[in-house]
Amino acid sequence: MAWNRLTPAGRVLAVLLPVLAIGGALTTALLVAFGGAIAATIGANLPIVRFLVASVVTFLISVPVAFLLIYMEMKIIALMNLRIGPDRIGPAGAVMSVVHGLKVLMKEDYTPPSVDVPVFTLAPVVVYLASFMTLLVIPFAPELTSMGFELGLLYFFAIGGLSVVGLMMAGWSSFNKYSLLGGIRAAAQAISYEIPLTLSVVGIVILTGTLSLPKIVAAQDGSFLDWFIFRQPLAAIIFFIAITAEANRTPFDNAEADQEIVAGFATEYSGMRFGFFFFAEYVNVFIVSALFSAVFLGGSNPPIHIDLNPQILIDLSALGIGLPLIAGIAPVLGTLLFAAPIWFASSRIKGWQALVAGFLIFGGVSTAAVGIWAFVMLPPVASLIWFLIKTFALVFTFVWMRGTLPRARIDQLMGFAWKWLLPASLLNIFATAFAVLIAGR
Amino acid sequence: MPRIPGAGLVSGMRLTLTRFFQPKRTVMYPEVKPDIAPRNRGRLELVTDEHGTLKCETCFQCAQACPIECIDMGGTDTKGRFAVHWGPAEQYAERREESAMRRSGRTVSDAAAATGATINIAKVDEILEAHDYDPHHMLAILEAIQGAYGYLPVDALKRVSRATGAWYAMVYGTATFYKHLAFEPGVTRSIAVCRCANCLVSGAGSVMGTLSYEFGTEFGRAIPWSNLRLESLPSHLPDAPSPLVVIDGEPQRDLSAKNAASWAAALAGRYAA
Amino acid sequence: MRPSLDDPRVAIPAESTWYEPAPTPQTERQAEFLSLREGEMFVNMGPQHPSTHGVLRVIIKVNGEKVVDLDPVLGYLHRGVEKLCENADYHQAICYTDPLEYVSSLFCEAAPVAAFEKLMDVDVPRRAQYIRVLTMELNRIASHTLFQGWMALDLGGITPILWAFIERDEIVDMLAALTGQKLLYNYYRIGGVNGDLNHEFMSRLGTWMSRAAAQIDSNLALINENEIFVRRTRGLGVLDAKTALKMGVTGPNLRASGVPFDLRRDRPYLVYPELEFDVPTRDEGDSLARYLVRMDEIKQSIRIIDQVLHEMPDGPVMAKLPRLLRPRPGRAFGAVEGPRGVYGTYAISDGTDQPFRMRIHDPSFVHLQLVGPLTKGNLIADTMAVMASLDPVMGGVDK
Q1: Which of A129, B4, C171, C186 fits C142 for a cystine, CB–CB 3.0-4.6 Å?
Q2: At what angle do helices B7-21 and A46-80 cross, to 10 degrees?
């Protein structure tokens, strides 16, 4: 039979193509028939649809973010240790963390006997959910906020605090003393540090009069001197220390102190369930960095406003049918343009090598050109780039701290939170309120 | 000394940041081979001389002396009769036994000594009993076994090693060292060709070849139809002609490279008679 | 045949509890240790645990985070080295003692060699003595740099260990050029050393010495001034001089308690009396003091190496000895000051070529006894800090 002669890819296609054809036809028919009703329903429930789309998008971007951060951590700490770090898979080992993810996915997902199975299974879900749900309110750019609602900051602290429930669940259900200690440590630490964390931003809330993150970012518009890190330096320091503890990062990573309690709450986890904890940790690092840059570093505002006022405006629509022609012919011409000097430079270079090099150079140059064009012409792109620069600078700082500092002891950690950070944050609130009272009104 | 709190942390952070940009110390192993000192003792290998021949004489001394039993050697002896092994017991099925047994002395294991016993081993036990299982009396034990059986059966040797605790290679070495100890049944006499320089010049090589061909055997093995064993003589006898062939210590005078074939035929005829 | 999991002897019955029944206490101390009060639980650390320095098992009785009681369980690495040495001749015995403390194995060789040389009245050539001092001090630096890395790692810093290994690798590579091995050198012989200094070793040593002091200082700056590190170790696990002497503590751990006892100066051996060096001591007796004393010793070792290189005499490196060594019946004790304390070997000869009895004293074993008294009342994390600062090596403890 013909089926037997097909390759595996061919078999997949042979099944898929009819299904797609029928599905496409059905969808078209349904859309034609009930399109108006569907549009009306979506239009009537726009917030729900928006929330669903935003959740899916944040979930989808959280995984690559985790991969990127894991790679950064491996590579930066390696370089600080005078090692090279990952360098085999991908350019400079950049795909290493993806391969790690695949490895975690392929490992056996083992549930030890005597664990509390439902809680044990739910714990990583809760932790990961808490992480990526907080991504929803991060104002990447004024136009690029998933859910820019009014209580964004409060929502962030509330949902962020939920992750400790997951850690406690993991610690309790694992039926392991190390896990238990790790879960308890995580809970104690999170509760202690959430208070200075929340209190430290009260000063900013007093100054801006809002809890909405996009509005806080907008309040820092102007030069870099308008950023809250310069107007509220004490709050910034407290906030930074507190988010380090919240994200369980060195020197406050007591909950998973591998020299003391092996892997803390994650001791009994394996496979993808461990992977969720692992990813959640790095998504958390990204989120707290993003929050710090939004609240204290001006978010998507550039340090100095330079009004470029681009005068060269190319109206692409004026080209008409020529636009696809140029889009088609430009890569070929560009490749040849960059390949020619390479080919002429040395007789030892073969034609195809010159072509490949030319294509790569053209790719780089055109990407840079498009990037610069987008940065200049499209405000959201510029804002996003500024936001990501600040966020990743903070991520680098976290990794840098991990590469440098030893771990604080749990009692010193708690003492620091209650004896120093809490009074300092209260002092900050009073000082800010006093200043606002004197100067403002 | 009052310090700014956090100054140590900041200076540490500065140090790691400078190291971040410093050249790295990783050795990219498969591409860059590590720099191994010429004096390195880490690798065991057989050394060859300038002609490409192995320098190892298979004296087993390295394996015997190795305190942690990491060197092992195996193969057949020079006469091609017996497999001789030296090394950790895990490597050889016939010597597989408990680690404790191996550590206490490398004797032949029970399993190896028990299999394939074609002789009545009781006599060996009696002899061993008479000598109080003392490995210092090894020669006397082996002579007694030779007297009892007429030759040294392999199973008897294994039994001796097993019972006295002497290492099998030592028992075997003692047995091969003395010429009057034989490994084949019925061999009481020996016919030996001298391999000294003088004899080789006057044709001992061709004599050896002829005898080996005529007797249908190899050097070191018994001649099938007789109680003779064909051997090579380590050193020349005084007042003896060249080439020298010795039967039981008596030099044969009417022999040269040319008439070796007829001499061998005559000897065979005498035996047949 | 491998047992199947369905085998009733192997399968664990569903109704069985997952708690192991507590063992019946044999002694009063054990009964006290095994009795749990309200809120207490046992936490078992090791023998597979990230920070027990090998295969040490520590049973910790905790109340929350507080360590109430602690019981180290030894013997997971026991090889019976003493017995093996008694079944080997005097040369072979040296290579058995090599892997006792694999971090600083030259000292483990030096002690039995010293004992055997006393047993046989061998005069070691002066050049061999200088080479021994040189290699031992190099090994001391290698051990102490590694200690620095482990100490930081046990407190959660991940960078110092890799920097420490860079320094240790250089030393170990140069010793490999001299002795032929990187870890278990087997370099000292009765009556001298195995092979003279060679060009490879000297050139590597020269390049290393030119930047060693500065590099090690720079490495130390990462954690020596670090507030977190200092806060975690200062005042932790204080060992007073009286207890230390009573417990038989030696080496840097004793000197950190203020007792300036150093075998190199107080019971001189080899050419140490001719060399000029200080014995660094501290009075605090806490983990930080133990750490800092070791770091000061690195500097003194570099000073000794410098002097040794300047005063190295010419001559043979091996005394003339018969191949088979049969000392007269008698007994001898040889000891050297190692990076962890006094390594001693007591050997009895009965006139044969094998030692009749050989007893090895290892400082790590003594120091491990301190983990219990020093950690009680502290937190779980402090157990690691105390244990790391005592710097035991399980190869030597379990022998």
Answers
A1: C171
A2: 80
